[in-house]
Specification:
The protein is mainly alpha-helical. About 55% of the residues lie in helices and about 5% in strands. It has three domains: about 120 residues, Serine Threonine Protein Phosphatase 5, Tetratricopeptide repeat; about 160 residues, Tetratricopeptide repeat domain (Serine Threonine Protein Phosphatase 5, Tetratricopeptide repeat, Alpha Horseshoe), CATH 1.25.40.10; about 240 residues, no CATH class. A hairpin with a 2-residue loop joins strand 3 and strand 4. InterPro entries: TPR-like_helical_dom_sf, TPR_rpt.
Length: about 650
């Protein structure tokens, strides 16, 4: 489609086309509506009317390589109405794989049930592959964030239907247990463990152990892990048992288990990041204690290895790296000319001004650049209301008021610490509880930062300190309210994304990601803004946001895979640029750091053996009460406010 219409416009166009019995255009616009809301009752009711009247419904949509995804969804619906459930499910899963934010699991659930009543054969391999993608994160955390839990809860009905009808599939049982546990459906997870797996199989014990641990039933978790160890002798179980002990508050007991595990399989643990970090912390490693603090949980060791959560990326902007070898305190008051190939973010020039002049006046800096990328990073978007930078000619200058002292003090209390995002976010919430402050004033702190504290000299340079201040300011704005819609934090943070590309933009992305993970209703709008921002990132020159944006975006659950692929491409370009800038660097690339396997999920480590499974059903699949008649709109809850898909225009 050459234009992208709203949901209401698509339905209106569909009705208009139907009035003249133009079935093809009716279905075309219904497809456009279903691409935005696949369970819209008005669109589905009209769809059923057209299918009943059309001479040859199968010819209403001819699928080829040029179809937009809404047409594929509609094509799948036509196949299902013709009781060709296998083709329908295969088509729908193709779309679902690319657009997991659409509520297509409701269609899959109904069609699997209908196929069962019709005794129709269905190949569930496409569904298995899709579900595997939902739990592909190798870093097995005990606790998920609210948005992650809500995402997995969407699939519980589908999992239970698959478990009912395909209980002889080992893959379905393992995937189901993983997803149900992540959705906090612990009783159903235990039921699979006790009814689907043989009692003497390690999979049964591990499934139970991980569900008990996530539910906070630590003694039962330890017993199940010990049972699994007797059966499989997998040394990784010692880490999992230690995490359960630690999570229950028993660090000394965890230390004993780790020591025991190390004796039994020293080589196995040599390169295990989580094991090594836990050992270091238990030995009172000062660096780790400074970063993590005393209130630490096992998941912190996973976050610690994650970029922009456990550590900030190195500053590689040319003008700052050129000064890195010099003693910055001796540059103060010196007249220095900076010449770079490509223009840099305003905050880089602010850091240069702070180093050389000791103040925030960028205009006094002699700064020369040769090139401006084709996508001009100085440009603003949508005339932002809250803005920190503006350009006069090619010189950036602050576009907000200097902050009040009380706001600077709040930022200092956070920025003064070693960076660790989970702790900063938790502390930002505490700091903002009961505080009534001028939120917009925090934007002033971002570009009129306080001086580097004396006790931080030697630990951070000016550039790193500026990043600390900007991230702390953004987090305090983000932590100021609980609601999202019609909130001031929403207005300020989203507007900051519309300003010139800068370190402030990156700090804002990090804060918005934390909001998204805690406030699921905000994710559609936040992710859409991130997708729009991606179009404004220059492809030439070094821009650290080319790493920050993909990292933040990929933390939000349920994002379209084709956009994740685009974000991965951006990350690859960033790594290529870093390789050119630092060819001798021995550091891992960001992409490697993200994808490094901290520890594989135990259920994925084990070899699947059919002998581990019982051939019994939790429910009598032949006596189900679901009806296979009627249209889809009658079988699922209507939700006209479903998340709009942000995919390509159709």
């Amino acid at each position: 489609m050459s234009e992208q219409y709203s949901l209401e416009e698509e339905i209106q166009h569909a009705h208009t086309a139907y009035q003249i019995r133009d079935y093809e255009n009716t279905i075309f616009h219904i497809a456009g509506a279903l691409a935005q809301d696949p369970i819209n009752s008005e669109a589905l009711n009209l769809f059923d009317i057209v299918l009943a009247e059309a001479p040859d419904p199968q010819q209403l949509i001819i699928l080829n390589d040029n179809n937009f995804y809404g047409e594929v969804i509609a094509g799948a619906y036509i196949k299902a109405q013709a009781k060709d459930y296998e083709a329908a499910i295969n088509l729908l899963t193709q779309v679902f794989t690319q657009f997991p934010e659409l509520e297509l699991e409701l269609w899959l659930n109904k069609w699997l049930t209908d196929a069962r009543f019709c005794a129709a054969k269905v190949n569930i391999d496409p569904i298995i592959k899709f579900l595997q993608g939902l739990i592909s994160d190798p870093q097995e955390r005990i606790r998920l964030r609210p948005a992650e839990i809500l995402f997995y809860k969407r699939f519980t009905r589908l999992i239970m239907t698959l478990e009912k009808y395909y209980y002889d599939s080992p893959e379905i049982m393992i995937l189901g247990a993983n997803i149900l546990r992540r959705a906090e459906r612990y009783e159903e997870t235990q039921l699979i463990a006790t009814s689907r797996f043989k009692k003497d199989s390690p999979i049964a014990a591990i499934t139970q152990a991980m569900a008990y641990r996530a539910a906070g039933q630590y003694n039962r978790a330890i017993q199940s892990f010990e049972q699994a160890w007797k059966i499989s002798s997998d040394p990784t179980l010692f880490i999992e048992m230690a995490k359960a002990k630690w999570d229950a508050g028993g660090q000394k007991a965890a230390a004993k288990l780790l020591k025991k595990g190390a004796k039994k399989a020293e080589d196995h643990f040599k390169n295990n990041h989580v094991f090594n970090l836990m050992q270091r912390y238990l030995k009172a490693d000062k660096e780790l204690l400074d970063v993590l603090g005393p209130e630490i949980r096992p998941d912190d060791f996973i976050y610690l290895t994650s970029p922009l959560q456990g550590y900030l990326l190195p500053i590689r902007d040319a003008s700052l790296t050129s000064l890195a070898s010099l003693e910055q305190d001796k540059l103060h008051g010196q007249s220095i000319q900076i010449a770079v190939n490509c223009i840099e973010p305003p905050s880089v020039r602010l850091a240069l001004a702070m180093i050389t002049t000791g103040d925030h006046d960028i205009s006094a800096l002699e700064y020369i650049f040769d090139d401006i990328p084709a996508v001009d990073p100085r440009a603003t978007h949508n005339s932002p209301e809250f803005q920190v930078w503006k350009y006069e000619a090619s010189i950036p200058c602050q576009d907000c008021k200097q902050p009040a002292h009380n706001l600077v003090a709040l930022v200092l209390s956070l920025a003064h610490q070693e960076f660790y995002l989970p702790r900063w976010w938790a502390q930002a919430k505490k700091l903002m509880t009961g505080h009534s402050v001028n939120l917009q004033g925090f934007t002033g702190v971002m570009v009129y930062p306080p001086d580097l504290p004396d006790d931080m000299e030697g630990k951070l340079d000016i550039g790193q300190w500026l990043k600390h201040v900007q991230i702390a300011s953004a987090l305090l704005i983000a932590a100021s309210e609980n609601q999202w819609k019609k909130s001031l934090r929403r207005d300020i943070l989203l507007t900051l994304l519309d300003g010139p590309i800068d370190w402030v933009t990156e700090a804002t992305l990090m804060a918005l990601t934390e909001i998204g993970l805690d406030c699921p209703e905000s994710i559609p709008e936040i992710s859409h803004m991130m997708e729009s921002l991606a179009e404004r990132i220059p492809e030439t020159g070094y821009w650290s946001i080319a790493a920050t944006l993909p990292i933040c975006y990929k933390r939000l659950p349920g994002r379209p895979y084709y956009i994740i692929n685009s974000m991965n491409n951006m990350l690859s370009r960033y790594n290529d640029t870093v390789s050119v800038l630092s060819p001798q660097s021995e550091e891992q690339s960001i992409e490697d750091s993200i994808d490094a396997s901290i520890e594989e999920s135990l259920l994925h480590q084990l070899n699947i053996d059919d002998h581990d499974f019982e051939d019994t059903s939790l429910m009598n699949s032949d006596n189900a009460n679901d009806s296979s008649s009627g249209n889809l709109a009658d079988k699922v809850p209507n939700n006209n406010n479903a998340t709009n898909n942000s995919g390509p225009n159709h």
